[in-house]
Structure formats: C-alpha cells, structure tokens
Amino acid sequence: MAKIHELPVLLADQIAAGEVVERPASVVKELVENAVDANSTEINVNVESAGLKVIQVIDNGDGIAADDVQTAFLRHATSKITEQRDLFRVKTLGFRGEALPSINSVSDLTIETSTGEVGTQLQFKGGKLIAQGVAAPRKGTTVTVNQLFYNTPARLKYLKSPGTELSQITDVMNRLAISYPQISFSFTSDGRELLRTAGRGQVEAVLGAIYGQKNLNKLVPIAKENLEIKVQGYTSLPELTRASRKYMSLILNGRYIRNYQLSRAIIDGYGSKLMVGRYPIAVISVTVDPALVDVNVHPTKQEVRISNEQEIMTLISQAIVEAVSPQVRIPQVDPKPKVNQAISRPQPTLERNFGLTNSATPLPQSKMAASSIEPIIITNKAELDLPTIQRFDEQVAKMTASNSLVAKQPVAPKIKPEELELFSEETKTTKFPELRYIGQLHGTYLLTENQGGLYLVDQHAAQERVNYEYYRQAIGEVSDDQQRLMVPIVLDYSTSDFLLISERLELLATLGIYLEEFGQNSFILREHPTWFKAGQEEDTVREMIDWILTDHHISVAAYREKTAIMMSCKRAIKANHHLDDQQAKALLERLPECENPYNCPHGRPVLVEITTTEIEKMFKRIQDSHDSKEF
C-alpha cells in the first residue's frame, strides 16, 4: 500500500485554517475584507463572547450569484484573479480563495447573499453543507460564524482572555476603518457599540472616533509624492507618544501591512524629537503601482515585498520632517486648574529631604551598625523558611522599633518568596566605604575621599538608589492614604486599549490607583497615592497604564518594581544641579543605608574609585624599578 496519499478536503481546509484563522480577529479581518472587495459602502460587524460564540458580518455589497455561492466555499475559488499575470497586479484585499473554506471548516457557518434578486442561503457545519434555501432579495451578503473552533479544541487552548481577543478584533476594525474612510463601519460586541464611522471619506473623522478629539488635535497631516509614489496621512506631535509601535499604522494600496523598514522611516522622521522607547501615533497611507508590490508572501497578506522600499522610506521621513518641524515645540499648558491640589488631606511631610525642592521622599533611616547584626547570604528561595531567617527578621524588627527617627515612616512590607527575584538585591558582603565630602564637579558628581583614595559619586544615580528603596516599600504597602483631587483626571483611550485596561483594573488597584469608567472609552481618576510627585500625577498614571498596554501579562511584582524605578528617577536630583555642602553630605549619609548602594535601579554604577596608588602612579610617585625584565 502506498505511503503517500492526498489529504481529504476537510483536513486540508483545517490545516489551511491554521495559517489563515489564528483567532477570532482573523475571521473578522477576512470577512470584512471580502465585504470591502464587494464594493460595500456600509459594513456592520456584531460579535458575542469575543467572537467565539458569534461573529456576524453584514454588508450592502454586490452579493454572490446563486450559481456561485457553493463554489465560493471551495479551496482556491476566487473571482479576483484569473491568470498568472493577475497575481502581480493585485488590487483587491483578497485573492487566494482560502478564507471562506478555512473559516467554514472550523465553525458552524451560515451565509445569506443576494445580487438584488431572490437570494441564496447555505448552512454549513464543520465544512459540510447541511441545509440550503432562499434568502430575502436584499442586495449584499450576511455571513454568520457560530461556535468558532468547536471541532479543534487545541486551538481554543491557545487563545487569550476574552478581553484580549476582543481588543484584537477592535484593533482590526480600527485599521480597516482608517484604511477605508469612505465606508461606513459599525462594530458591536454583546450589544455594546464599540465603533461607528460615518463613511464620508474623512480620515480625520475616523481618527477622532478611534483616538478621541483631544489626541486628534495633536495630529498633523503629512503629504509627499513623486512620479511613482504618493504618501499621505497623519502623525502626532512629539509631545503625544505611546510606549508601543502598534500605534503606527502603515497602509499600502488600501491594505494594512507590517514593515519594519517603513516603521523605522517614521521614527527617523522625528530625529531626536522622540524620547527613547516612545513612539508616535501615525497613520501613513502609501499608494504605488500594484506591479511594484508582491502581496503573495504571507497567508494573511500583512507582510509584503516592495521593490522600491528605499524610495518610500525616504518620502515618509521627508514628509514627517516637513510636517513636524514647523510646529511649535513648546507643549501647551492645560488652562484647567492643576489636578494636584488637595481637598481634604495635606500632603504628608517626609523628613530629611536634603533641603531640595525636587528631591525624593527618603527611605526611613536605620541606625543599625554594620557590626550589630551579621548579614545572612541567601542562595535560594527555600532558605527563606529556615529558623535562622526568622531570628534575623526578629532582630531587624527590634532594631527598627527602637529607632525614634522612623516612628512616622512607613514600615517595609514583607516580600513574598515568589517576588524575591524581582525585589531582591545582592546581599552586601563588604562594608560601604566611609566617605568625606570634598566638593562637586560640574553640578553632577560629588567628590569624596577616604584613606583608600578618591571616590566620584553620581548624584542622580545615588538619589535614584535612595528613592528606589523608599518607593519599593511604599508601593508594596496596603495603605488607605490617598490624595484627593480638586479636578479629577479624565483619561481617554482607543476602544482596544480601553478593553485591555478594563481587564487589569485590579492590578492598578494594588498600587492605589482606582479608575472608574467614565463615558465611552474613558476613565476618571479622583484620587491617587500620596507618593505621587506633585504636578506629575497624570503623566505618572499614563506611564503606568502604558506598561499594561505593552505587556498584557505583567505580574504584580514586576509592575511594582517598574513603578518604583520610575518614581525614583522622576524624583531624583538631575545632572547640572548644584548642591550646597549640607545637601551633598545628607545624600552621602543616606547612601550607605541602602541594601545596594553601589548601583542605581537601572544598573548604572553609583560611584567609582580612584585609589591612592593609581593617583600616585599618575604623578610618577610610584615607578617601575630599572631592574624590571620587561622591555
């Protein structure tokens, strides 16, 4: 018996579905693109249970003739290309003829379609036709997909949470709406409308519906073209950025694509105006001759080959430079009252702030002498349960309780073993050197000395370390202390971001940030933790939310760690900030009390040593003997 055989049609379709239909958002994308190719002017999408229960796409396009409906569900059956040369001049979104049979093989699917006459209705289950009949003579097509992946349970296992899957669908709908502003789109999930566009051909109106009017006001139009290429769209001012590249949309001949080089061209257009790790909101539409683009590269057609890619990159960068450079670079101050004014509770005063108005809240001082408690080296998590560790904790608690200087300071929370990797620092095995302050260099480095030589201390890194260890404690505490806002902060997001944030509200609450839903795709913040820096409340909250949007699975421990590092940097002394002797000495007194006084939270060194021996060698006070055998 022959070992090689042709696979059954249904099995081949299910294999193809693995490439084309990765998740519910893939089904929505393929069905809506079919509706666009059918010359629709109105497309309505309804989903239930994030698309796993129901996905329905209704359009008013050309419809499918009765004789062609069943043929449309055969593999590689299409009306969009007929011969080989058509493959190199594709003008439609679809052309492979794989989407319908692939979706059909992993769901229960019903289609009702008409060209304006008596329509056709077909019902499939797992790729097999089980019923057919007539449909109303409404011109257009309705495709209803039920119980997606019901017969491929392994696929269900790898799907994300309902909120994440719904966010993916929303992202697909947003990009299609931006690509085709002349089409009226509506998107509803479980009866709740998440998107609606007018279909009047105005891209700015679609962007306003997706990103909000406030963000739309910070977008500037771009336009650039030559004989073969036309670039147009919108990009944000440098003051409006996000922590992820996903807010940059590239549209090539009406098709949303992913292309690293073109994305790089967007960033290059800003030059040094963007902060490291920040990305603009951009919608760039590129129109070229279809013969210069090969879309037959990837099953989802989101990756393409472009023959004149370098020219397009140059045009995009030039267009952004011309659009952004003339704009005023000084961010406008919000005329509304600042939100950092307290209503009921005064901001608690924290001692020993080095006399700096911009200094961080200090870590509670500990008067423990290095010799009073012997350090314990922990090599693995299992050792945390040893009696020796418990006795050590009791000794530390007694020392802290006896210290009158910390009576009003928060007590550090006991860190759980599972959080040890993210919050632990290397145990100090050597005593931090006793330093005597000499002076300051360029308002950035503190010059200190001891018997061993000269030490240069980076003042920003040093205070970052002190701040970090305070915030690592404060953020980890469960406290009811909140600063009430006179004017609440309203945070607007796109629908896809709003859905992701809604899923992680409990994570934000663990840090004392309580967001309430406030209208369509908005949250309101009425109070914030007392450790927020005055005047930076909104920026701090937005940055913390950006981490959730960038890493959907960030743990509580990692989230607290990132927040502690961010706050320590925001409230640290900056470079070129001249300190008086008292301020510098206060900082140097606090540094040895840290768990790890040798590095800032980002890993940079806090201080460097130049030994007396090295200095003497520089001045030739120590020289090699003339008897040296080295030549």
Description of the molecule:
This protein has 631 residues and is an alpha+beta fold. The protein is 31% helix and 21% strand. The longest helix is centred in the first third of the chain and has 18 residues. It is elongated, with a radius of gyration of 31 Å.
Task: Write a concise synopsis of the structure shown.
This protein is of the alpha+beta class. Helices cover 31% and strands 21% of the residues.
Which helices and strands, and how do they pair?
Blueprint: H1 9-20, H2 24-37, E1 42-48, E2 54-59, H3 99-105, E3 108-114, E4 119-125, E5 128-135, E6 140-146, H4 153-157, H5 162-179, E7 184-189, E8 192-196, H6 203-211, H7 213-216, E9 219-225, E10 230-236, E11 241-242, E12 248-252, E13 255-257, H8 260-270, E14 279-280, E15 282-287, E16 293-294, E17 305-306, H9 309-324, H10 387-401, H11 420-423, E18 436-441, E19 445-450, E20 453-458, H12 459-476, E21 482-492, H13 495-503, H14 505-509, E22 515-517, E23 522-529, H15 537-550, H16 556-570, H17 581-590, E24 607-611, H18 612-618
Parallel strand pairs: 1-7, 12-15
Antiparallel strand pairs: 1-2, 2-6, 3-4, 3-6, 4-5, 7-8, 9-10, 10-15, 11-14, 12-13, 16-17, 18-19, 19-20, 20-24, 21-23, 22-23
